[in-house]
């Protein structure tokens, strides 16, 4: 079986690995996989994808298309158009946390693109529910996967106020909220520490640094910068709590990986996150943009070793459901029809 996988393969340009680079490699255990494209420019990336579809039209069984909610949606849409014109079956993989809004804003395009797909892959129950509510019945739930053996479990029998934040400094991930949280925590725990891992985007890292200085908590915040997955996994051993402040999300791999390592996760309850784990059992969910609520959630973890220990152990147990060992057979089942 031969698969053409279209997505943003931009790790070589300093971006975090996306699904095409993670899932794409794993699918090579099932089929021959061609991964396109590495161009940073969206226009050149689309041209490369279009060329790959046409060049491989008679040799591939299926085209997988990573589908996002913003400008990347149009790239996926037009790739789908080319596939249909060449009578190639294609499968959109639904990644963008704001895709449900896209279904409303671009209904005609969405109907054309999604209804003509062989099927849709939703990585979360949230995304599957939203698409089914919009009338799309060909949705398969295939969770994001992790390699559990790559994440060393550190059992937190207690948690210190050492907090790790891992995302790019983009507005949708709300990094300023993390600064507000550590400012509140520093009044109770003067030695509280926030490590912020991720690349700069649109000047928001500078904004966060200025805010930390204004609040006089520079000593409580470390701006680590961009790290590889391996590097931030190693760094996580020095922290006990993982903070996710995002305003929009689907099923964030960083949260899943933090749980696999036994970190106590505190996250906003947006998008698909409520479908990811059980609140106050395997992690803690709070309302977005509420620094006070987040800080209280962290205080409860720090002040209650038993609670921290429970979150740590239950998070690891939950993460076993996302191991490739269990996700691989699901892909095999759905891809079998194209062999």
Describe the protein's architecture and organization:
With 339 residues, the protein is an alpha/beta fold. It contains 13 helices and 12 strands. The model has no long low-confidence stretch (mean pLDDT 95). The longest helix has 15 residues, at 305-319. It folds into 2 domains: 2-145 and 323-338, Glycogen Phosphorylase B (Rossmann fold, 3-Layer(aba) Sandwich); 148-322, 3-Layer(aba) Sandwich (Rossmann fold).
Q: How would you summarize what this structure contains?
A:
The protein is α/β, with parallel strands linked by helices and 339 residues long. It has 13 helices and twelve strands.
Overall pLDDT, averaged? 95
Q: What's the CATH C level of the largest domain?
A: Alpha Beta
Helix content: 40-55%
| Number of E-state strands | 12
Distance between the termini: 6 Å
Tell me about the largest β-sheet: 6 strands, parallel
Radius of gyration: 21 Å
* Tally of distinct domains: 2
Report the CATH architecture of the largest domain: 3-Layer(aba) Sandwich
- Kindly estimate the percentage of residues that lie in beta strands according to DSSP: 15-25%
For CATH, the homologous superfamily of the largest domain is named as Glycogen Phosphorylase B
Strand order of the largest sheet: 9-8-7-10-11-12
Low-confidence stretches: none
What's the quaternary structure here? single chain
- Cα shape: globular
- Number of helical regions: 13
Task: Give the topology.
Blueprint: E1 2-6, H1 19-27, E2 32-36, H2 42-55, E3 62-67, H3 72-85, E4 90-94, H4 99-105, H5 107-115, E5 120-122, H6 125-133, E6 139-141, E7 162-166, H7 175-188, E8 193-197, H8 204-214, E9 221-225, H9 229-235, E10 241-244, H10 253-260, E11 264-268, E12 284-286, H11 291-303, H12 305-319, H13 324-335
Parallel strand pairs: 1-2, 1-3, 3-4, 5-6, 7-8, 7-10, 8-9, 10-11, 11-12
Helix pairs in contact: 2-3, 7-8, 7-11, 10-12, 11-12
């Amino acid at each position: 079986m031969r698969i053409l996988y279209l997505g943003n393969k931009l790790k070589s340009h300093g971006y975090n690995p996306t699904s095409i680079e993670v899932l794409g490699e794993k699918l090579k255990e099932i089929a021959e996989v061609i991964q396109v494209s590495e161009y940073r420019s969206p226009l050149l990336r689309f041209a490369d994808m279009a060329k790959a579809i046409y060049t491989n039209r008679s040799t591939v069984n299926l085209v997988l298309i990573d589908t996002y909610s913003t400008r990347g949606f149009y790239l996926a849409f037009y790739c789908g158009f080319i596939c249909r014109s060449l009578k190639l079956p294609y499968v959109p993989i639904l990644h963008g946390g704001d895709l449900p809004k896209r279904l409303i804003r671009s209904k005609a395009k969405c109907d054309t693109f999604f209804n003509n797909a062989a099927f849709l892959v939703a990585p979360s129950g949230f995304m599957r529910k939203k698409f089914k509510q919009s009338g799309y019945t060909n949705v398969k739930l295939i969770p994001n996967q992790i390699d559990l053996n790559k994440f060393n479990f550190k059992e937190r029998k207690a948690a210190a106020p050492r907090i790790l934040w891992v995302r790019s400094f983009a507005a949708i991930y709300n990094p300023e909220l993390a600064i507000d949280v550590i400012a509140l925590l520093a009044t109770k725990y003067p030695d509280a520490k926030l490590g912020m891992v991720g690349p700069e985007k649109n000047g928001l890292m500078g904004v966060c640094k200025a805010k930390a200085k204004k609040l006089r908590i520079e000593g409580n915040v470390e701006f680590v910068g961009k790290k590889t997955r391996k590097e931030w996994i190693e760094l996580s051993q020095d922290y006990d709590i993982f903070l996710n402040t995002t305003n929009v999300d689907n099923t964030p791999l960083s949260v899943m990986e933090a749980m696999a390592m036994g970190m106590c996760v505190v996250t906003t309850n947006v998008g698909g996150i409520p479908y990811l784990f059980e609140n106050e059992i395997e992690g803690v969910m709070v309302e977005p943009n509420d620094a006070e609520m987040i800080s209280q959630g962290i205080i409860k973890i720090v002040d209650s070793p038993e609670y921290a220990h429970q979150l740590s152990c239950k998070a690891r147990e939950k993460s076993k459901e996302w191991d490739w060992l269990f996700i691989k057979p699901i892909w095999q089942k759905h891809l079998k029809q194209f062999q």
